[in-house]
């Protein structure tokens, strides 16, 4: 099944000096380039070859729309993380200030380097260009009008960019750090007070047509997803993120090829396809006060019981 290890040749991403290959599904294009594979190819290649047999609707979204000038880098990765070598170009793009979509243990997220001011502004703004009209404009507005969250590698990242979790106060309120540690990695977003290490651009929210508001808190996550964690480890840094939301409040875009069809023409740099997700968002808990408050009940609730 050699075809599952080939990619079509891509172009150059607007605004970046880095020319990279565009990784698309091999059956769609005649020109191909062999991609270096590990000495012992993982068995997942057999599964990927079978996965090409999609429904007509999915085939519609994965058609030759990725051939646009400038290119969208599209990488189909094994959800188990067995083919992590495919993620190297994505990590290089993130280091150069790219904005793209990756899977998490809940829904897909739009991400960029939290230390790249231009990337953060792109994440917030470039979808609002005048050419981005109609339903999708409102869709993205709903997603980006929310505070951003940090995808962290470990508790050390959380300690760096926040003041940490509440401790006991000596008045009957015990420290909840042990419970939190038990639940991570996992599908939780904890809202904590931001530290001085967090860039100011990560503590503002709003839209280009409305004044940015300052915040003193930020959401933090340690996703239990092999692809996401491998990207964070290879990058050796956390990422700033927001979920890829749908038109309604509790609606998300879950199919990566549908996300590519919607966002690719608007300048998105890359997408990592980890398979179709289930609409189970993270459980959001506000821990900026002594008694935690559940802001949104999501995928799991064991911390609350």
Automatic annotation (TrEMBL):
InterPro entries: DHBP_synth_RibB-like_a/b_dom, Sua5-like_dom, SUA5_domain. GO terms for molecular function: double-stranded RNA binding. Residues 84-300 form the YrdC-like domain. Pfam families: Sua5_yciO_yrdC. This is Threonylcarbamoyl-AMP synthase. It comes from Linum tenue.
